[in-house]
Amino acid sequence: MVIEAAKTAPDFTLNDQDNNPVTLSELKGKKVLLYFYPRASTPGCTVQAQGLRDTKAELDAHNVVVLGLSPDTPKKLTNFINKQELNFTLLADEEHVVCEKYGVWQLKKFMGRENMGVVRTSFLINESGYIEHVFNKFKTKDHHEVVLDYLNSK
């Protein structure tokens, strides 16, 4: 079950694309858009990442740090960042421990097959470490707009 708004965001430390550890609680004082996506360099994930890349200045203006999280290896994340010229941090959750903490590691059905995977979900975590908003109804190409619309309405 996906974690709901108003709950404390589960803390974690994961390696980024450069194998440097990133700890969520060390980002207190900033808003964090923690977005979970299934796999780097797939069409939907690429479109979603490009939207966030292209609106980074607007997100920065709202004091938002973007962290993308998937069960990929740091090497795959580095390739994704380089190929798409991404300007934010990607985190490797190879054992899907953080995905499970946030409730986004679920049984998925695709073309008649069932398998466990990441359900595309984003969490806006406020400056105090609480989940302010959960984004789970969006198209990959509109994700950045949905997030900015929410931030601009505050």
Strand content: 25-35%
Mean pLDDT: 95
State the total count of DSSP E strands. Answer: 9
Question: Structural class of the helices, strands and pairings?
Answer: alpha+beta
| Shape estimate | globular
| Biggest beta sheet attributes | 7 strands, mixed
Radius of gyration from the CA trace?
14 Å
Strand order of the largest sheet: 2-1-5-4-3-8-9
Please give the alpha-carbon distance between the first and last residues.
27 Å
H/I helix tally: 5
The run of helices and strands is EEEHHEHEHEEEEH
Poorly predicted residue ranges: none
The helical percent reads: 25-40%
Top keywords for this entry?
154 residues, globular, alpha+beta, two-stranded antiparallel sheet
Provide a quick synopsis of the model.
The chain is α+β, with helices and mostly antiparallel strands and 154 residues long. It is built from five helices and nine strands; from the N terminus they run E-E-E-H-H-E-H-E-H-E-E-E-E-H.
Structural topology:
Layout: E1 13-16, E2 21-23, E3 31-36, H1 43-54, H2 56-61, E4 64-70, H3 74-84, E5 89-92, H4 97-101, E6 105-110, E7 113-118, E8 121-125, E9 131-135, H5 143-152
Parallel strand pairs: 3-4, 4-5
Antiparallel strand pairs: 1-2, 1-5, 3-8, 6-7, 8-9
Q: Can you characterise this structure?
A:
With 154 residues, this protein is an alpha+beta fold. The chain is built from 5 helices and 9 strands, in the order βββααβαβαββββα. Strand 4 (64-70), helix 3 (74-84) and strand 5 (89-92) form a beta-alpha-beta unit. It has helices at residues 43-54, 56-61, 74-84, 97-101, 143-152; strands at 13-16, 21-23, 31-36, 64-70, 89-92, 105-110, 113-118, 121-125, 131-135. The chain has a 7-stranded mixed beta sheet. The protein has a two-stranded antiparallel sheet with strand order 6-7.
